[in-house]
TrEMBL record:
Cofactor(s) the record lists: Mn(2+)
Cofactor, how bound (note): Binds 2 manganese ions per subunit.
Protein name according to UniProt: Arginase
InterPro entries: Arginase, Ureohydrolase, Ureohydrolase_dom_sf, Ureohydrolase_Mn_BS
Keyword Metal-binding: yes
Alphabetic keyword roster: Arginine metabolism, Hydrolase, Manganese, Metal-binding
Gene: rocF
Pfam family, one: Arginase
Species of provenance: Ideonella paludis
Pathway(s) served: Nitrogen metabolism; urea cycle; L-ornithine and urea from L-arginine: step 1/1
EC assignment: 3.5.3.1
Length: 304
């Protein structure tokens, strides 16, 4: 695993349906994400926060809310993440809402094309985020990033990164999904997205889900983890704008993170949708940082 990590704050809730995710980066810093990662022998470069347009909080226009601002924020994220990857660093995007995964993952895909690597994306989330303007009445772009990355969305968004589509659905593994809109369900099925939903995890266990999600990774694979904090059950992570009951428990989430760490392949990370305005004494940020620590090798005992 890369030894230098770069923290990139993206303080915006431009794609969300609730205000507050713009405060997420600072809450993660308050929860000591930097010092905790340094305690694992990593060099941590905190690049501060990106500066983008304010949230105008307007209704949708032609199926999208705040599209010009969403495009600007994602271009800023794309360039920042791409710059860190080009320097051999492991970028950690501190969101912000999950629309920013579009900028982040398109940068990772561009980097993989540059260096001739395969890409695997783990999407840890309660939602598939595979909506289009035709499928969602809200127009909130945080429900659309995976679809946009796969080429289904407005031209301004799908072309960020220079290649359309930026990724193939075959490169994505979604884990913890438990809230999918009716039209989105059909679209996910048509596109062949690989989804380990909560029913699968209930029946087969987190271990089997993760073994399948991580199968066939090799030394030439860049593993990107996109961690939406609403992946977690709201009992342990109340500080999100779109809580969905019945998510992974603390122990299931820890196993998920530890199995990712065991691969040694994670090379970029998003942490998104943390909403301190809805949290209890920064509890959710602290749980998120604890799980991120496990992604970087924290375990109860030394593992062979």
């Amino acid at each position: 695993m890369l030894k230098t990590v770069s923290l990139i704050g993206a303080p915006t809730d431009i794609g969300a349906g609730a205000r507050g995710a713009s405060m997420g980066p600072e809450a993660l810093r308050v929860a000591n994400i930097g010092p905790i990662l340094e305690s694992h022998g990593l060099t941590v470069l905190d690049r501060g926060n990106l500066s983008g347009p304010a949230n105008p909080w307007q209704p949708p226009v032609e199926g999208y809310r705040h599209l010009p601002e969403v495009v600007t924020w994602n271009r800023l994220v794309h360039e920042a993440v791409y710059a860190e990857l080009s320097q051999g660093h492991l970028p950690i995007l501190l969101g912000g809402d999950h629309c920013l995964g579009l900028g982040s993952i398109s940068a990772v895909a561009r980097h993989c094309r540059d260096v001739g690597k395969k890409l695997r994306v783990l999407w840890l989330d309660a939602h598939a985020d595979f909506n289009t303007s035709a499928l969602t009445p809200s127009g909130n772009v945080h429900g659309m990033p995976v679809a946009c990355l796969c080429g289904h969305g407005p031209q301004e968004l799908i072309e960020i990164g220079g290649k359309v589509p930026a990724i193939s659905p075959k490169w994505v593994r979604q884990i913890g999904i438990r809230s999918v809109d009716p039209g989105e369900k059909r679209f996910v099925h048509e596109q062949g997205l690989e989804v380990f939903d909560m029913r699968y995890i209930d029946e087969m266990g987190m271990r089997q889900a993760m073994e399948l999600a991580l199968a066939t990774l090799d030394a030439n694979t860049h593993l990107h983890v996109s961690f939406d904090v609403d992946f977690l059950d709201p009992d342990i992570a109340p500080g999100v704008g779109t809580t969905v009951p019945g998510g992974p428990t603390y122990r299931e989430a820890q196993l998920c993170m530890e199995m990712i760490a065991d691969t040694g392949r994670m090379a970029s990370l998003d942490v998104v949708e943390l909403n301190p305005a809805l949290d209890v004494r920064n509890k959710t940020a602290m749980v998120a940082v604890d799980l991120i620590e496990s992604l970087f090798g924290k375990s109860t005992l030394m593992r062979r």
